[in-house]
Design a protein that fits this description.
The complex is a heterodimer of chains A (540) and B (239). With 540 residues, chain A is α/β, with parallel strands linked by helices. Chain A has a domain of 210 residues: Rossmann fold (3-Layer(aba) Sandwich), CATH 3.40.50. Chain A has 20 helices and 20 strands. In chain A, strands 1, 2, 3, 4, 14, 16, 17, 18 and 19 form a nine-stranded mixed beta sheet that branches. Chain A has a six-stranded mixed beta sheet with strand order 7-6-5-10-11-12, with helices on both faces. Chain B has 239 residues and is an alpha/beta fold. In chain B, strand 6, helix 8 and strand 7 form a beta-alpha-beta unit. In chain B, helix 1 packs antiparallel against helix 2, helix 2 runs antiparallel to helix 3 and helix 4 packs across helix 6. The chains are: A alpha/beta (540), B alpha/beta (239). Chains A and B meet through helix 5, helix 14 and helix 16 of A and helix 5 and strand 8 of B.
């Protein structure tokens, strides 16, 4: 591994850097480790925007938002003694990695609960809007809402949503597209639902909060389909997302039956700090200290077992800061937050790449505190999230090559992802066709009594969740592999996983690039997406 | 909203003792021992049962089959009508309070998924019958005691419902009812039931003992716990 040394000349752009003869090697995530690789001259490296400065007084900003809401009366004006209020919160999948304490949800809850108490409201339930995600454990909820709220409300008035509770769910009706609208009964029976959201990526928030966070399987399966994903260009661009359009229809039906007061927040992209702060920098700008930090971390990681590496990474919270908070009616509130999200994440890029390189980190929205980023989640990070981080056009051309770096170990967390194991080992060897899988097996997994039990009382993702993860990658698969292109994984520690995913293997990044060039031509345009932290390209 | 899947050839097979209920066949026998027609009879039978427990434990470690043969010998001489009549009382006093709180939910969920519900137990048929009725299952398979002139001989009818035999019985049952075992589910708590779990396409370890937990982890079978305290119950609270 060549030492990272600063380049002598200046950069042509802060976000888009072209590799030259004197460029430093680039750091890529490789699961719970890093790769430090030289890239071919001419490669574009796309960096995220710098984190927007956090609001100087988040508590004041939250109070201002509650008192000056969008197209709604202020929160205090909606309250009266004896009313029934449900507060719903985003779950542990946001933000990633979990933020330093106090979590922004704790800060908002403090303010909102104080206001409710002041207005004589004492019938308050706090529901973690897990949708079909796993139940959060007590220690995770405590970390999210803070000790004071947890001790006062858990477990009777602070709990996880249960989408499989036949007595706890209610069907509100159908949309004009015949989508079933199921929601949490307690929320539906409440005089007011206050939703506390975190927007980390543009697909979060808006009607997705109530319409998905509190829904049931029959409601979710209306839009979590391969068809909806393929018709979403991309699902990170709500205006062009068929998935989002369906969620909006469902959310609007919810709004007809429920009084929802939405509190949305946007966080900046300050994902790493302290010893990991070098990950937020362009490698050409590394100081001696940055190089030492990286070398020290790499040295330690290389000598640490994977499970311990994972534990260490999971224990490093992110110093995210609040950059915007708005409240009120769902749609206008979301519009303002979305604008701030795009301001943080969008990087304009000229032209698509023939070969796209990106590292896959140890974490995804679906494996916080899990024992592994299992193969299906590696797939969803590559072909789902990272592929979809675009507006206008995908960053990689149709039929192009995507190179990802991850060990792709055949490792699953049997408590968190039991149905993933069956999906991966039983279904993928039969077919990778998402449409066939949906038709033939999705309901079987969804209504498997063991998976239902593990979802309801254990800490497992819903039985149908691996299907949704596979569909998440469908647009990427069709764009790349069905278009004649390929996905190449660098550093896979086995051949089974890439084979089942339909990917090719390369031992090194250089080998993968050579394979990509042999497919796309010697003059192929190579682009590296330098993330995390998160970025979204606006390809023109 | 719970569509029944179009797969009528599916069933769920449940072991009973330790899986759906906390008690086992020894509890049932001990209860019968305590309820002899005379006080002295009850005392003698109870004492004999208590003293035999170490032997039962050793036999169970050796083989479930040996255990059953040894254990059911203690029923020798019991009048048939008495066993049958007291079975209802046994259910109310001993079995019903020991049903795991989530057992009914699991069966209900399985029924909603369109599966035939079958108990397969090493217990005696007359003790399992009231439980099967209470749980609303479609069928049950259990051991039968042989009777002669209205009195138990202490021998079980064949085949014994235990260990590997359970899988053979399940195969026969599936053939008889047109079930596809690959589509069927099975639930058990005990390593001795590994054969019945391996014969179906969807095995699940329920409240597993150490050895079954190890097997389940090795084969990536789902593991569920129907016991748990109230904190683990569905987090549904309504005003």
């Amino acid at each position: 591994m060549r030492a990272i040394k600063p380049r002598s000349r200046g950069l042509e752009s802060e976000n888009v850097v072209t590799i030259d003869t004197d460029s430093a090697p680039r750091i890529l995530f490789y699961g719970e480790d890093f790769l430090c690789e030289d890239l071919p001259i001419g490669t574009r490296v796309i960096y995220p925007n710098r984190p927007i400065a956090g609001l100087p007084n988040p508590r004041a900003a939250i109070r201002y938002a509650l008192n000056h809401p969008e197209e709604s009366d202020p929160l205090h004006a909606l309250l009266y003694p004896g009313m029934k209020v449900t507060i719903a919160l985003d779950d542990i999948s946001l933000p990633l990695p979990p933020m330093v304490r106090p979590d922004i949800r704790e800060t908002i809850l403090d303010i909102v609960l104080e206001m409710l108490t002041d207005h004589g409201v004492d019938d308050i339930h706090i529901i973690i809007a897990t949708s079909l995600h796993r139940r959060m454990a007590d220690f995770e909820i405590r970390r999210m809402v803070g000790d004071k709220v947890f001790d006062a409300y858990a477990p009777d008035r602070l709990y996880n949503h249960d989408a499989c509770d036949p007595d706890g769910m209610v069907t509100l009706g159908r949309t004009k597209h015949n989508e079933v609208v199921e929601t949490n009964k307690r929320a539906a029976d409440s005089d007011l639902v206050i939703y506390v959201n975190i927007n980390l990526v543009p697909m979060d928030g808006g009607h997705k909060s109530v319409g998905v966070g509190l829904c049931g399987y029959e409601s979710l399966k209306a839009h979590h389909t391969p068809k909806a994903i393929v018709e979403s260009k991309s699902f990170m661009d709500p205006k062009h997302s068929a998935l989002n359009h369906s969620v909006e229809r469902i959310g609007r039906v919810c709004d007809e039956h429920m009084k929802v007061f939405h509190i949305e927040t946007a966080l900046n992209s300050r994902m790493f700090s302290g010893p990991m702060s070098f990950l937020m920098k362009n490698e050409d700008d590394f100081s001696e200290m940055d190089r030492m930090k990286f070398q020290a971390i790499k040295f330690a990681l290389d000598r640490t077992p994977r499970a311990l590496r994972r534990e260490i990474f999971m224990r490093v919270p992110s110093p995210y800061e609040l950059i915007a908070v708005h409240a009120g009616k769902t749609e206008p509130t979301h519009e303002k937050i979305l604008a701030k999200c795009f301001e943080q994440y969008v990087v304009p890029v000229e032209g698509q790449a023939d070969i796209l390189i990106t590292g896959i980190p140890y974490i995804s929205p679906y494996n916080v505190n899990s024992k592994a980023l299992n193969p299906l989640l590696v797939q969803v990070m590559a072909l789902g999230y990272f592929f979809h981080m675009y507006r206008n056009k995908p960053l990689v051309k149709k039929g192009g090559v995507m190179i990802v770096t991850h060990p792709c170990s055949d490792a699953f967390d049997a408590d968190h992802h039991p149905s993933y194991i069956e999906f991966f080992n039983r279904l993928l060897p039969e077919t990778r066709d998402a449409y066939t899988l949906e038709k033939k097996y999705q309901d079987e997994f969804a209504y498997n009594p063991s998976y239902v039990e593990m979802y309801r009382r254990g800490n497992a993702y819903h039985g149908a969740h691996p299907f949704f993860m596979w569909y998440w990658g469908q647009a990427g698969r069709e764009h790349l592999q069905d278009g004649g292109g390929k996905v190449i994984v660098v550093g896979s520690d086995n051949s089974t996983v890439p084979k089942l995913l339909g990917w090719e293997r390369a031992k090194t990044l250089s080998e993968a690039i050579a394979m990509g060039r042999s497919h796309m031509g010697r003059s192929a345009q190579i682009t590296m997406l330098h993330q995390p932290p998160i970025l979204m390209t606006d390809v023109i | 909203m719970h569509p029944v899947l179009k797969k009528p050839n599916r069933a769920a097979f449940y072991d009973v003792d330790g899986t759906l209920i906390q008690t086992n066949i020894v509890h049932a026998f001990a209860w019968y021992a305590q309820h002899q027609p005379t006080l002295s009879g009850s005392l003698i039978k109870s004492a004999k049962t208590a003293l035999s427990i170490p032997m039962f434990l050793i036999a169970d470690k050796l083989s479930r089959k040996v255990f059953n043969q040894l254990f059911y010998g203690y029923y020798a001489g019991e009048p048939e009508d008495r066993l049958l009549v007291l079975a209802e009382e046994l259910f109310e006093d001993v079995i019903k309070p020991s049903i795991f709180p989530r057992a009914k939910d699991l069966i209900e969920e399985s029924r909603r998924a369109g599966m035939r519900q079958v108990l397969i137990s090493g217990g005696l048929d007359f003790t399992v019958r009231p439980l099967a009725r209470y749980l609303g299952v479609d069928d049950f398979i259990a051991n039968t005691l042989e009777f002669e002139n209205g009195y138990a001989t202490g021998y079980l009818g064949k085949p014994f419902v235990a260990g590997a035999t359970k899988s053979v019985i399940m195969r026969d049952y599936a053939a008889q009812h047109g079930l596809d075992l690959g589509e069927c589910h099975a639930y058990s708590d005990s390593y001795s039931d590994t054969p019945m779990l391996t014969v179906v396409g969807h095995p699940t370890a329920v409240n597993p003992d150490f050895r079954l937990r190890t097997v389940a982890r090795s084969y990536d079978w789902p593991i569920i716990d129907l016991r748990g305290d109230s904190r683990d119950k569905p987090a549904r609270r309504r005003a």
